[in-house]
Amino acid sequence: xxxxxxxxxxxxxxxxxxxxxxxxxxxxxxxxxxxxxxxxxxxxxxxxxxxxxxxxxxxxxxxxxxxxxxxxxxxxxxxxxxxxxxxxxxxx
Amino acid sequence: xxxxxxxxxxxxxxxxxxxxxxxxxxxxxxxxxxxxxxxxxxxxxxxxxxxxxxxxxxxxxxxxxxxxxxxxxxxxxxxxxxxxxxxxxxxxxxxxxxxxxxxxxxxxxxxxxxxxxx
Amino acid sequence: xxxxxxxxxxxxxxxxxxxxxxxxxxxxxxxxxxxxxxxxxxxxxxxxxxxxxxxxxxxxxxxxxxxxxxxxxxxxxxxxxxxxxxxxxxxxxxxxxxxxxxxxxxxxxxxxxxxxxxxxxxxxxxxxxxxxxxxxxxxxxxxxxxxxxxxxxxxxxxxxxxxxxxxxxxxxxxxxxxxxxxxxxxxxxxxxxxxxxxxxxxxxxxxxxxxxxxxxxxxxxxxxxxxxxxxxxxxxxxxxxxxxxxxxxxxxxxxxxxxxxxxxxxxxxxxxxxxxxxxxxxxxxxxxxxxxxxxxxxxxxxxxxxxxxxxxxxxxxxxxxxxxxxxxx
Amino acid sequence: xxxxxxxxxxxxxxxxxxxxxxxxxxxxxxxxxxxxxxxxxxxxxxxxxxxxxxxxxxxxxxxxxxxxxxxxxxxxxxxxxxxxxxxxxxxxxxxxxxxxxxxxxxxx
Lengths: 92, 118, 329, 108
Hints:
Largest sheet of chain D: none
Oligomer: heterotetramer
Distance between the termini of chain C: 55 Å
Largest interface: B-C, 87 and 105 residues
Largest sheet of chain C: none
Number of strands of chain C: 0
Distance between the termini of chain D: 60 Å
């Protein structure tokens, strides 16, 4: 059952990767990265149980905590970028 | 199945050479550094591939289970430190690129060489 | 067994991502794809039974490296010029080398082969001796901190030097770090975004707490100074992102960070020297206390603390150096 | 025994349902016509899929430290995912990306 769940998550990861490669805007890519991060947390939790060593959930916990930083960094980058190049459109 | 066991060793050169290709063919210095990180990641992958042992688990000893096999801890030690060293050296490279960009106004290698030639 | 199939699938995704990174002309996209690359390789490390390495990759790849690359992009340019020439030659060299390496792989032992040479020497000795000599469950920590403490000291000084190098390159030359130009109006971070600010502020203490857990639980589970340093600095970077760099520097100033870097390196070397002073060799912890095993435990905790301090200090100094450079513009 | 079986079935149902929603989210993120609809598909199913899958795994873990860690993971994901979605939509809107699909500019 873990294997079925992990397979579904992996297929979703592949879909997210496709979206990240296709774009077209940078926000689509960031969205894909964020989605991929959530799926990674789920996959790591499931695999920890599949391998029978649930004491390795620390890794999933680490991702759950700090995956968010990437998106905020992007938000700040875009904000500074718009401040510097006001009027110029970004990500198209 | 026998051949699939070598898949890691096939992915390793592909990643390694993708990184090297980025370093060789791209003039953009940040792209070169990204290529370098990928090259580095490929080496990490090779080392970690070697530590895997069938039926093993991560080398954190379980009390009361003396028959348990553990993966090889030595490559893990090397790569663990190498990852953090990698980010520190990447930061150093990026700092140099920032200074180059401030001095030359560009981070494209050929334009920099063009300016140097003048 | 089925896990290996997942690993093969992820490796394929990894190759696709790598090609995508090289092909994308927009450096911002390349950085985002590099984030994906890091996530995938962390899962692969986890599947290959390297929990410590996966945790390190997670701690470094998810927060710190994206933030640093974006910081550098903000200071330079995020578009790549159209590459000229040399592409065919580079492609040729790369593909021929790859083919030779793939050809060589047919002599490799297959994945997980218990008879592989790498499992025959050294490693069994470490696995056997760790419970006897050091008595901590995590063999990776035992090797990192005790058996091969010299190597780790060297790595620590590489990180130390890289941090100093970044400061040399990016500090403003007044010798005061970036302290003088800090409290500017633009240094406010994402203060006006209420929701990320509240949630971020909620997360920061948990990240730092988790970092400390990883630091001090490293003998028993995946973890240690390197991972903890990256996690704690990720927490402080999150604080800097939401409240502005000035607020983060008020908590941990440049001077405090420099103190952490030096204190960590000194602590590590000092523990090594204590071994000599107690009549044994450099970095021999067995003589630190009357009981050799307790001495090993004390030594490992101290040098992991040193590693944690230096890594946190260096990563945060680097982050602040880039951020201060951006504000000076 | 029957309690254990019921628990197993319950966790399987939760995990399968979670897998389904995760997959639907992936398809939505790939197939929807513009950024905002894609984000809507991805972020909503992210949350639901997380709740279902992690609850399923928690049922399997029973009352252990692992269950507490899983609960913590779930809480943190439930906090960060919607926030990240908000931050992202905000960044996109700030930069002037229009929410109308027919005006979504293509690249390359």
